[in-house]
Amino acid sequence: MTDISLSGPSAAGKTIPPGARAMRLPTQWLGVAPFIIFALMFLILPTLYLIIGAFQSADGGFTLQNIADLAQPTIVAAYWISIKVSVASSLLGAFIGLAIAIAIVRGGLPNWTRSAALTFSGVASQFAGVPLAFAFLATLGRLGLLTVLLRSIGFDLYQHGFNVLSFWGLTLTYLYFQIPLMVVIIVPAIDGLKKEWGEAAATLGATQWQYWRMVVIPVLWPSFLGTFILLFANAFGAIATAYALTGSSLNIVPIVLYAQIRGDVLHNANLGYAIAFGMIFITGLANVFYIWFRTRSERWLK
Amino acid sequence: MKSGKFWAWLTFVLGAAYFFIPLIATLEFSMRMKRGEYSFEAYRVVLGDARFQESFTFSVVAAIFTIILGVLLVVPTAYWIRLRLPQLRPIVEFVTLLPLVIPAIVIVFGYIRMYGSSSPLPFLASGLGTNALLVIGYATLALPYMYRAVDTGLRTIDVRTLTEAAQILGAGWTTIIGRVILPNVLIAVLSGAFLTFAIVIGEFTVASLLNRPAFGPYLQNMGANRAYEPAALAIIAFAITWGCMSLIQVLSRFAPKSANRPN
């Protein structure tokens, strides 16, 4: 704290006269002005507008009523199913993605498997939205190839409680972009594990398990956790896939919000703001956790 | 070690199965339109559909404008941050990551409420304004990818020396950015551009809520009303994504690895 108050004037007095400094500062900032204005107008202010709206009554006064109104059963159920799908698809996606990444980098597989998996992951991680829903309907829908094939060998998925328009159906579909996203981000981190570390650990008499527990996991942990949070936010905000897959038969939060924006189905504009605020709150909270975990793990790494 | 290799193969094969079965199933389904034989009938119907052509063209144009806006916004900013305002880097990086945290549906909801026809800045009052807002929204969604691509590109060139050399030769800022910096990071910019294209071309949420006749809402509409055409469209969309990502891979081979380092 004292550093700032001391170095400020002394540095200014030493090099540049105060007048010239005042002249210089604005032109410096002019270079980033378009970006700052764009970010304010089209990213930050629209979001703030909704957040403020969430705490306003219809006549503009402050209220917590909108937030309290979120407690109605349909909205709570929507948040709950959204959180379940996002947690399930990001947890499974993170661990399966990690397993695939370890297999292709460290598993002793031929080189082509690595480049093939990475190229494919790059594509699949961006293959989301409506077309992805079509692909899974063609695979696991009632007339999908896999459903028909399994039925022909005597196993009826739908008789066993599976439905592509359900929690597990949606989770399975989301994994199609979640797993590749994890692979794409975590492979460079695994590449960053130096061979020398393994050798050093072996020289010091560490077992394979100790090497993993004390070297590999602590080094990968921050990127793994960060990607997990990214996957969570990715699934939580996604609407196109779910909408095209299930119509409105599976009421996740973005679909409720979508219906509200289109036609004020809740008959309360400010309740729509509260739903949006709830979404930002949850993804924001996830990121706070991530930053907290990361600073902790970095401190521990030192 | 032998068992390790077995598990690695098993993981790889199971992963490959999960990712290929839906593609094969979709391809198979898309070719079943004619009863009793495999044909490309669904593709013929889709590609001949006037609404397909219109919505696809609309989205391609929107993507091109998004890329232009993204480049104009990101290149000067990332350059200036590297050259003059490194202390702003954490803040700008944080802002560019926000679109990954704030869901697209929330951002567009904010637009609809802030820029409605009775607001001081009535973007939504006219078709042209709404199109502009669509492009702006897409540029926002693509911001994290575009910024990262350009910033990575800038890291491989010596921004300071290039700028000083250009200044000595009497170049102004527009010339420096347009004719010195941009050509040097062109490959990075193109990578960001293709990624933007892949994101924008089938985007549903923003286009649908702004009521634009884009490819994403068209896809959704087909999905709700037809059986075989959606499968054909899914294959087409996958091919487009594949094309964009392959171009990025090809481009990355031409990218300089570390031009400013002596070793």
Oligomerization category of the chains in this entry: heterodimer
- Total number of strands of chain A: 0
Listing every helix as H and every strand as E from the N terminus to the C terminus, the arrangement of chain B reads: HHHHHHHHHHHH
Give a count of the beta strands of chain B, DSSP E runs of length 2 or more. Answer: 0
What's the overall geometry of chain B?
Answer: globular
Helix content of chain B: over 70%
Return the CATH class of the domain at 41-150 and 185-254 in chain B: Mainly Alpha
Return the string of H and E elements of chain A.
Answer: HHHHHHHHHHHHHH
Subcellular location (chain A): Cell membrane
InterPro entries (chain A): MetI-like, MetI-like_sf
Keywords (chain A): Cell membrane, Membrane, Transmembrane, Transmembrane helix, Transport
Membrane topology (chain A): Multi-pass membrane protein
Describe this structure in words.
By secondary structure, chain A is mainly alpha-helical. Helix content of chain A is 78%, strand content 0%. Chain A has a single domain, classed as MetI-like fold, CATH 1.10.3720.10. Chain A has 14 helices and no strands. The longest helix of chain A is centred in the N-terminal third of the chain and has 34 residues, at 73-106. Mean pLDDT of chain A is 84; it is low at 1-16. Chain B has 263 residues and is an all-alpha fold. Chain B has a domain at 41-150 and 185-254: MetI-like (MetI-like fold, Orthogonal Bundle), CATH 1.10.3720.10. In chain B, helix 3 (50-83) runs antiparallel to helix 9. At the A-B interface, helix 3, helix 5, helix 6, helix 7 and helix 9 of A face helix 1, helix 3, helix 4, helix 5 and helix 6 of B. Chain B: Keywords: Cell inner membrane, Cell membrane, Membrane, Transmembrane, Transmembrane helix, Transport.
Concise overview:
The complex is a heterodimer of chains A (302) and B (263). Helix content of chain A is 78%, strand content 0%.
